[in-house]
Amino acid sequence: MSVSFDIQSSIANYRVVIENGAFAEVQRQDENSAVLCDNFFETAFSGNAKVIAVPANEETKSLTSVPEIIVKMRDLALTRQAKLTAVGGGSLQDIATFCASIYMRGIKWDYIPTTLLGMVDSCIGGKSSINVGRYKNLVGNFHPPETIIIDPNLVKTLNSEQKIAGLCEAVKICYAKGSSCFSEYMRLNPQMDMNVEGYADVIELSLKAKKWFIEIDEFDKAERLLLNFGHTFGHALEGASNFEVSHGIAVGLGMLIAINYAQVSGGLEHIPADTQQLKDYVIGLLDEIPMLKEIIQRIDVEKVFECFISDKKHSTSHFIIISVNGSGALERLFIDKTEANIINLKSAISSVINQSYK
């Protein structure tokens, strides 16, 4: 298949290309470009002298690691006219976005996402999120690539957990877009073991849904904030587990916690049909991951809550999360920092950790 479309941005418009076999073309780089890639893909660019390979993890996606990468870019004699090609998943994308945006006050770059999570979600939007100390995604900026090249064949390189992580993010986006988009997603019956063509359809649907959010609210001021569904609790689970729970899986669990909070706080007396379908679908995906229940049951609720309250999206007087209302639509909740609400939040977290997210 070959599909392409543009993302409108006030910074600079950029193009998304979804094409089977596109990665082979990307491997041929010219002399005025460099590759920043996940270590896993270093050998794919062995014929290119200008390659920076890094571990794609939360430690590399930190402010302390950025100077070393910047120095390597300078050692490769990259000029302001050079282009950086980033190859990897979401963490690598964050690193590349940030480094390309600040190197010599900004150079052009392309991005080839290699994880399903990157393909269905993070590859568009143009923003970086970098960890500082123990705080996840504390700093960042907006610097979109010129072109995003997606090769669905790369899904074959992923393990089952990586595929499920991407599906958790894809269903979140489609649910956030509304009932029609969510229904279209569910009609595709996305499962971990589907073929490349099935994944290509999911990628296209998810990105076109996210495109709407990006173009109507590029800088996260209104509608795009709904895409934080599952993320505030998810980031807390990541931190509390010392990142033993990966991002996409944590978002899946975070959506379940957010729905549970709506129930225990009295905001959701009866679960709407779409919300119940979402919950059942996510639980079904997570049940496919060996050892996940054991991992999350080892996580301390108090540590999760400690990570939750340090999230940058909260205000001084309110916890701010995305949850569901009585009709099943997403809404932004401003939760007073009262003892009763804290009890409800901990209860929602506990219901997922201690009851195996049922």
UniProtKB/TrEMBL annotation:
Residues 52-162 form the 3-dehydroquinate synthase N-terminal domain. It comes from Methylomonas defluvii. This is 3-dehydroquinate synthase family protein. GO terms for molecular function: lyase activity. Its EC number is 4.2.3.-. Keywords: Cobalt, Lyase, Metal-binding, NAD. The keyword Metal-binding applies. Pfam families: DHQ_synthase, DHQS_C.
